[in-house]
Amino acid sequence: MSIRRELLDDLEQRRAKLQLGGGESAHAKRRERGMLSARERLDAVFDESTFQEWGMHVDHACHDFGMEQKSMSCDGVVTGVGRVDGRPVAAYSQDGTVGGGALGQRHAKKLCDIMDYAIEGGMPVVGVNDSGGARIQEGVESLSGYGQVFHRNVMLSGCVPQIGVIAGNCAGGAAYSPALMDFLVMTRENANMFICGPQVIKASTGVECTMDEIGSAAANASISGNVHFVADNDQQAMQIVKELLSYLPANNISNPPHAPTDGICLDPDESMNDILPEDPKGTMNMYDVIHRVVDPGCFLEVHRDFARNIIVGFSRVDGIVAGIIANQPNVKAGTLDIDASDKGARFIRFCNAFNIPLLTFVDVPGFLPGVAQEQGGIIRHGAKMLFAYSSATVPKITIITRKAYGGSYLAMCSRDLRADMVFAWPTAEIAVMGAEGAVNVLYRKELADAEDKTEIRAQLINEYRERFASPYMAASHGLITDVIQPAQTRCVLSLALRNTLTKSETRPPKKHGLIPL
Fold first, then answer.
1. In 10 A of CB 423, how many CB atoms?
2. What is 36-245's CATH topology?
3. Distance (Å, rounded) from C-alpha 117 to C-alpha 19?
4. Furthest-apart CA pair in the chain: how many Å?
5. Cα dihedral sign for 246, 91, 394, 323?
6. Residue (of 361, 357, 324, 348) closest to 503 by Cα position
7. In degrees rounded to 5, what are phi and psi of residue 361?
8. Which residue in 430, 389, 432, 394 sits closest to 412, CA to CA?
């Protein structure tokens, strides 16, 4: 006996109404601003027709303030599971047209259900945030809902990748769930993320500010460092999510999606030898090195606009996925400061959690000097780099291109922090400090007594550099795997990656280490 036609028609009418969210007029206004709907955002990331929605018929649970007479489609959030490049991914997308996307009890339950499923199924989570925050009408129930979501974010951390998209309002407590995720993508227009808005700040402190100063994509990406990627629009934001997922494993017990090429090209890249400036003090653009080492078009930079004196991102070298950390001599001479240390350490720990090998390119003269850095805790922040590299058990391969001085040399994954292989260019200088500074300390009396201080000083600097800062000195002590030509860098790294993929390293049993936060 077939299902009665009227029941099927009723189902389709219900689904059509629910899929409209806050109504066509609300969506039309958002389209005028260049915004996609909650479902369109998910459609942009998932393979066609693979998304299975969860909880379409869920409605709110509020019976006060006249809410009992209103219906809220899907309780303001679309959740489900789909496939991205054939791999399962759990997702939610808050609907700003339904009650401003505010979170209530059942809205939170839908988020928690999909996150629980993600950790049980071992799959990434993508969350599109477009919410005014806690639903005031539901009071403490909405706060409880946020607490449950935050707890899930922490439970998923390090088990499955979590990617957040800020594509609308993300205010107050709503900002903390994205903050607990691994990567955030934010649209340049139509989105903001902050804890206290301009009016609250003025009322509390008397300081006037604009939303652009505290909550815009530019502020979050370049000043506070809360956001990792900035997109021009919703469509590009979801494409960034897809590209990011292409480098990541599904979970912490899976390998990244390596696609090793059939062969390795061992021919030297002679253009690499031309990257080095003739003047040892001249600046070098580390992007030129990275783009010649990785496969064409296979470098996804993370945190591009924040702490630009260090570069981090995902890459492939002859099909092998790797995380890259590199000093950028073009910015602050490549020194490590508070923000660069935080940026580098966070990226290292993510790669280690998800079995992604680390490639480190070193050109670092030291930690950034200054009163603000010392008072801001450069010791504590710099120690995060030491902790992150030391605790990482994934393959770690280091290339020292030029300067590698003092504690910053150690902090950029030296052999002593258990790098598996350390290669140096002939131009590498590995020492406690630069030759000029060392000579000033070691030969203070001789220089004071010399008649021709300039000539004597230049001679002493050259002698010190040859004897103590040469890569061959470090190599003679077994601290360098090999000294190589810059032209050999790509093939050397490709071989080293393949030779270390089977690495297995255990650490002393403990609950967890205590990184200097």
1. 23
2. 2-enoyl-CoA Hydratase; Chain A, domain 1 (3.90.226)
3. 23
4. 110
5. positive
6. 357
7. -110, 120
8. 389
Q: Where do the domains of the chain lie?
A: 36-245, 270-433+471-500
Q: Is the dihedral of CA 86, 88, 94, 97 positive or negative?
A: positive
Q: In terms of Cα–Cα distance, which of 69, 67, 140, 79 is closest to 107?
A: 79
3-state secondary structure (DSSP) of residue 108 = helix
How do strand 192-194 and strand 77-84 relate by DSSP bridges? Answer: unpaired
Q: Which tens digits make up the pLDDT trace of 125-171? A: 999 999 988 887 788 888 999 999 999 999 999 999 999 999 999 98
Model pTM greater than 0.90? yes
The residue assigned the tokens 């459609």 is 43
Exposure string (b/e) for 227-255, b if CB count within 10 Å is 16 or more?
Answer: bbbbbebbbbbbebbbebbbbbbbbeeee
- Calpha distance 275→398 (Å, rounded): 18
Buried b / exposed e across 272-290, counting CB within 10 Å, b at 16+? beebbeeeeeeebebeebb
Which positions ≥6 away from 223 have C-beta within 8 Å? 306
d(CA 59, CA 67): 11
270-433+471-500 has the same fold as 36-245: yes
Pairing of strands 77-84, 52-54: antiparallel
Distance separating alpha carbons of residues 125 and 120, to the nearest angstrom: 12
Rounded to the nearest angstrom, the gap between the alpha carbon of residue 87 and the centroid of all alpha carbons in its chain is: 21
CA distances from 112 to 180, 281, 375, 402 (A): 14, 54, 41, 49
Cβ atoms of 388 and 325 within 8 Å: the answer is no
Output the pLDDT for position 21.
85
Whether the Cβ atoms of residue 124 and residue 163 lie closer than 8 Å to each other: yes
Confidence at 245, pLDDT banded by 50, 70, 90: very high
CB 342 within 8 A of CB 226: no
Q: Residue 20 corresponds to which tokens in the numbers above? A: 């409209």
Task: Kindly report, residue by residue over 300-312, the tens digit of the pLDDT.
Answer: 999 999 999 999 9
Residue 409 has pLDDT above 70, yes or no: yes
Kindly list the distances between the CA atom of residue 497 and the CA atoms of 38, 204, 316, 395, in Å, as whole numbers in the listed order: 41, 54, 10, 7
Contact (Cβ atoms closer than 8 angstroms) between residue 169 and residue 100: yes
* pLDDT, tens digit (0-9, with 9 covering 90-100), for 466-476: 777 789 999 99
Any idea which fold 270-433+471-500 has? 2-enoyl-CoA Hydratase; Chain A, domain 1 (3.90.226)
- Residue 365 burial class via C-beta count within 10 angstroms: exposed 0-12, middle 13-18, buried 19 and up: buried
| Measured distance CA(340)–CA(456) in Å, rounded | 37
Query: What confidence category does residue 100 fall into, taking pLDDT thresholds of 50, 70 and 90?
Result: confident
